[in-house]
Amino acid sequence: MSDGGAWRGNIKARLYERVRERGYDSLTAFADARPAVPLYVLADELGNDVAAVQVLSGLLYEAEQHKRVTRFVRDVLVREVAEGLPNGWPPILDDASRFEVAMTLGRWSAYTPETHEERVRQVCDVLLASPPPPGWRPLGPDDEVLRTLLPDEEA
């Protein structure tokens, strides 16, 4: 967890220095080596002066540069499901589990770039109307269910 030092100095330089120290040439490569790990955990791994939102922003920047924003959006959902639904998709959507699902999908939606907001809204609707199998927990952005719901469209 960030101690406030995350907002001092050159944030971008600090992020890339930390991932290089760990043997990666990009923030995406660092994150890809840790699929389904929540963003705050990735930030903690990079130091107590790194915030999860900085990791998220860096990952989006790299995704935009490589025209892989849809994959980024799926990756963020995987990380949010890992955090919000650690036992996977609930078998029954009662009030308590519906709240957990709504919170998870809401966080995902909040982290979605404008370019993908409508598609994410549609995916949320599908997941609620036709839930995935009980216990479904995507392990990475290339999960079959996710690729069906949110296929790559970037050129």
Features:
mainly alpha; 0% strand; globular
Question: Could you describe the 3D structure shown?
Answer:
This protein is mainly alpha-helical and 155 residues long. It folds into two domains: 5-65, no CATH class; 69-149. The chain has helices at residues 11-21, 27-32, 39-46, 52-65, 69-84, 95-110, 117-129, 144-149. It comes from Corallococcus caeni. This is NUDIX hydrolase.
The biggest beta sheet is recorded as:
none
* N- and C-termini, Cα separation: 37 Å
Order of SSEs: HHHHHHHH
Number of domains: 2
| Protein structure class | mainly alpha
Question: In total, how many beta strands?
Answer: 0
Shape: globular
Walk me through the topology.
Blueprint lengths: L10 H11 L5 H6 L6 H8 L5 H14 L3 H16 L10 H16 L6 H13 L14 H6 L6
Protein name: NUDIX hydrolase
Quick summary:
With 155 residues, the protein is an all-alpha fold. Helices cover 58% and strands 0% of the residues. It folds into two domains: 5-65, no CATH class; 69-149.
